[in-house]
Amino acid sequence: MILEQQLSQNQKRRRDRVLRAALDLADTGGYHGVQMRDVANRAGVALGTVYNYFVSKDHLLAVTLVEWTRELAQSVKQNPAEGDTTLEKVLDLLRRMTFTTQSNQRIAAAIVGGLIAEGEQVAACHQEIHETFTNVLETAFEPGFDTTNRDQIIRTLQNVWFSQLIFWKNGWFPIERCVQELEDTAKMFLADEQPASASAVTASARVGW
């Protein structure tokens, strides 16, 4: 398997075509509609080329979520979370995280199917997704927020997000309930957070400014 950082520009373009082909097939046939030979044909590359980039279908689908989280991180960098409180900012980011799932449910279900598979490459995708989401959610917290508490909240939200995706993918919960469960968890941790400006006024009053 060729590592991503080792790819030439032409190889990156072929790899992107393979990813796009997998998403197109998932959009029409879900998880089972993504077959490596069909991906190769749709992308216009040899089957061996697909396997040069991705060791399995599950690896290929997991990488599509990695790419999406990278795009999300870039979007948040350009358009930071909106809101007056930490809770409002976190909810804004969580809604962005789930928007693609809600708007492309067949594709999302296929990607989740790949993400819950075993394998070293899928595990590496898990790790990058975890790190990216952590970095994204950290932007919702004020610099003075207790880092231990912040990290626990973010870790819990990620665990809830992933478990809810599995519930939805298996047909146990509708996507709307999964989103609500995620938002309810955020509210449980952050409902008492004040706007940054209000916190500053309160702190000033305490020290007699």
Could you give the count of β-strands? 0
Q: Helix proportion of residues, in percent?
A: over 70%
Averaged pLDDT: 87
Order of helices and strands: HHHHHHHHHH
Task: Give the number of helices.
Answer: 10
Query: What structural category characterises the helix and strand content?
Result: mainly alpha
* Proportion of residues in extended strands: under 5%
Determine the N-to-C terminus distance: 62 Å
* Radius of gyration, taken over Cα atoms and rounded to an integer in Å: 20 Å
Main beta sheet? none
Instruction: List unreliable stretches of 5+ residues.
Output: 196-209
Shape: globular
Could you characterize the architecture of this molecule?
With 209 residues, the protein is mainly α. Helix content is 75%, strand content 0%. The radius of gyration is 20 Å and the shape is globular. Residues 196-209 have low confidence and may be disordered.
